[in-house]
């Protein structure tokens, strides 16, 4: 095996020295680097090896070679920003499964345990390569980059020697048919730069893995894997911008990324027990209302998956005594356990249902700080809350009307049982249609209202639809809370059309004497609501310049049946008052407002009028 590999390496080096073609210089402004354990800054447990880079004596290795990984090698073209992108990768090599095969050295990364290295040979496509571009070799395990080396294309052997001796680039002779890429990965390479990170090899035997802080651990029972895998447990540093999960649920800071390489499933019937401490004081008087769930999620993918609860025996968490695991990775794998250990989407917990208070005191953790999983990704704690519409959605009323049923939402925790969240603020916001929220029995009319939840966990607000309905009549209202599986709920209501189609005041043109007798008017109302509207009234105004003066209106409320209705005969009386003063002879406008019994404006209609006065108007009156 060693002879075969040395032959391949030797041929590769000779092929790399055959050509003497011109090359284009590297564009200015790019920072070329070799980043590994021998070149600062770099991962202290990852090393590029000769013949890719210059040999170092003694080798700066600091750990034990790890042959259990499945690294990927990418060749990419650096952009103007000195970085690669997903679209700039020109070649990618994955790891070959099975023993070393010299016939596959140009196609796959392969591990050579005897030489403690990984190895692949890249054959550059000089037809597609651009000599004016800097190319980068990257070594990755999963999504984690371990190291990289930038390539400088040279045209002569002298230039090759200069670049080689300088050690800042990997020299590549233009036209060379091959470039051997060799590297070494040691234990803890996947933990480089990580916080509270542990990397171990897990095999077929039962094994416990605990982080340095003892705040996270994982247990595998015997037979979980049929081959060795590399396990990494690393704390995810969360802040205001970085969260553990992509969800609207409330989260805690104890979040860990748990990965295995190669990423293979556990054997059938086996589950790992993940244990993570919880940053919640169990003595908090409100802790019982925050009974959290241990969940799993994939970074950047919305939603979380609930883990079946299990005990914890490996981690050390202040205030939380060790809890044995009646349902854990050590438990017998009978059908009941396996069925119980299946995953459930948390979303399934939040289907709307009647809210009720917990019938017994809730424990913060009822079975322990552990959970069972068959796969790996981000793990952390969330408080499961549901936020749903209880009443008042999809109503249809005349424009400008207060809805008969207030929009109502309910807020509750769902674990270990459904329980109302009391005295929490719900924000209601008008989002379309021009309506208003009515507070204090009509004392305040606002666009945004914050209402507390009552003893049932629900909150509501009166909603008056916009008077000027759109063509669709759509009005919208949003209710929101800070944390829930779905933290916003949208209400819709339809404004049904009702308005004044025509109006007349006495003769044509209409004339009113300032301080004189009233004029009787008639109003025709178009009622498109499909139902009789009770208690309508008309209020009159006289408008002239900046003057807006009350001018009477309907004597009695009236009812308008569906279709077109007309106000009762002689019911509307309009007058141009002399008190307060302000009206003068000349042109003016009578405004007729159609209102509901509570004064809500439904529609306005204007009629041109002429104002006169007793004894005649002054000459040249307009």
Salient structural properties:
622 residues, mainly beta, Chondroitinase Ac, Chain A, domain 3, Immunoglobulin-like, ten-stranded mixed beta sheet, seven-stranded antiparallel beta sheet, 44 strands
Describe what is shown at a glance.
Helices cover 5% and strands 40% of the residues.
Q: What does this protein structure show overall?
A:
This protein has three helices and 44 strands. With 622 residues, the chain is mostly beta strands. It folds into four domains: 2-190, no CATH class; 194-383, Chondroitinase Ac, Chain A, domain 3 (Sandwich), CATH 2.60.220; 387-496, Sandwich (Immunoglobulin-like); 498-612, Immunoglobulin-like (Sandwich). The strands form eight sheets. Strands 35, 36, 37, 38, 39, 40, 41, 42, 43 and 44 form a ten-stranded mixed β-sheet that branches. A seven-stranded antiparallel β-sheet has the order 11-14-15-22-17-18-20, with no helix packed on it. Strands 1, 3, 4, 7, 8 and 9 form a six-stranded mixed β-sheet that branches. Strand 38 and strand 39 (547-554) form a beta hairpin. The protein is elongated, with a radius of gyration of 39 Å. The model is unreliable at 1-32 and 326-365 (pLDDT under 50).
Write the layout of secondary structure elements.
Layout: H1 2-15, E1 34-35, E2 46-49, E3 72-77, E4 89-93, E5 110-112, E6 117-122, E7 135-141, E8 144-154, H2 157-166, E9 170-173, E10 179-185, E11 195-202, E12 207-210, E13 216-220, E14 229-235, E15 250-261, E16 272-276, E17 293-297, E18 305-306, E19 308-310, H3 335-340, E20 344-345, E21 370-373, E22 378-383, E23 385-391, E24 395-398, E25 408-413, E26 419-420, E27 425-432, E28 436-439, E29 444-446, E30 448-452, E31 458-460, E32 463-464, E33 474-480, E34 488-496, E35 498-505, E36 510-513, E37 519-527, E38 533-544, E39 547-554, E40 558-560, E41 563-566, E42 572-574, E43 586-595, E44 601-612
Parallel strand pairs: 8-9, 24-34, 36-44
Antiparallel strand pairs: 1-8, 2-10, 3-4, 3-7, 5-6, 6-10, 7-8, 11-14, 12-13, 13-16, 14-15, 15-22, 16-21, 17-18, 17-22, 18-20, 19-21, 23-25, 25-26, 25-31, 27-30, 27-33, 28-29, 28-32, 33-34, 35-37, 37-41, 37-42, 38-39, 38-40, 38-43, 39-42, 43-44
